[in-house]
Amino acid sequence: MLGKMSWSALLLTSAISFGSSAYATFLPPNNLYLQDNKRDAKMTQATFNEVIDEAIAYYQPLMSSKFGSDFVVNRRWSDSTVNAYATQTLGSWEVNMFGGLARRPETTRDGFALVLCHEIGHHLGGYPFVSDWASNEGQADYFATLSCAHDLWKNQTAKNALSRDLIDAYPKSLCDDVWKTEPEQNLCYRTLLGGKSLAALLSALSGTEADWQTPDTSVVDQTFDAHPEGQCRLDTYIAGALCAQKFDATVIPGKSLGSRNNSTAAERVSGKYTCLQTSFTTGPRPLCWFKPLL
User: Fold this and answer.
1) Residue 200 within any structural domain of the chain
2) Is 85 among the domain residues?
């Protein structure tokens, strides 16, 4: 079994190293698969499949009708790899989800859903790009809370309302400052709690801390395409949840510009569906990974 787990981790590492234009991952290569506890895991295979089924039900018709592509989620429940990745082949836009990630003690149901949203974001998130098709890591995080969580959960009003009694006062205030109706606020609370789950996982991987009230104050000289640190990623989940712009997942902002998909023209297109620093004080992409061109 250890040999099999090591092989899957090595495969994922090789995919990242040799196919950056073909693969887009949630985490850097890691050895957390060695800690996989299948016996005492909080998430069941049924929940794992339920989360994936919800995403397929929404995104498969969209990808088929708008882009002529199949949306395939490979369910690798028995694999202990703690990661997820997206890839595109002719006619098929794929996401690979692993049981090792779902079974992590930090991973809640909604945190797992946001990882899936992140991988979908590599396909649909648009500018800024890391290849001809894949949005970079920060943008995939931003898409996860700005677009995907909103579209998947907006009608789950009863489930969203459960987060009202679970969210801390400070992140609750962030949501309340932007969203004025109770259903909007509840959706925001749920989204932020899912993001906090992933921040806890990132802390376990890197040995750093990530908290609501300690934003990353660093400013990059150019847009950072690799995986940001945990605090920067939590800041990005918060920003997406607080951005009041409506993202259109059928557009993939900037992709139609081809080799100019990271140009100022692409940023202008993206600005129609996201919050840019030039126009919004709430919800812009954090400067710890994003360098505006405009």
Assistant:
1) yes
2) no
Burial of 150 (0-12, 13-18, 19+ CB in 10 A): buried
Q: Rounded to an integer, what distance in angstroms lies between the CA atom of residue 160 and that of residue 190? A: 6
Q: What's the mean pLDDT when you consider all of the chain?
A: 92
With beta carbons less than 8 A apart as the criterion, state whether 243 and 275 touch.
yes
Number of compact structural domains in the chain: 1
31 lies in some domain: no
Residue 14 belongs to a domain: no
Encoded amino acid at 60, one letter: Q
Q: What global pTM score does this model have?
A: 0.93
Longest Cα–Cα distance in the chain: 53
Structure tokens at 257: 């510009």
Q: In which residue ranges of the chain is pLDDT below 70?
A: 1-23
The gap from C-alpha 290 to its chain's centroid, in whole angstroms, comes to: 15
Pair 268, 294: CB distance under 8 Å:
yes
pLDDT in tens, 181-224: 999 999 999 999 999 999 999 888 888 889 999 999 999 999 99
Residue 252 backbone dihedrals phi, psi, to 5 degrees? 50, 75
Angle in degrees, CA 137, 147, 83, rounded to 5: 40
The pLDDT assigned to 181 comes to: 98
| Residue type, position 269, single letter | V
Measured in whole angstroms, the distance separating CA 225 from the mean position of its chain's CA atoms is 14
Dig out the tokens for 292 from the structure. 């505006």
**What letter does residue 227 receive in the DSSP assignment?**
P
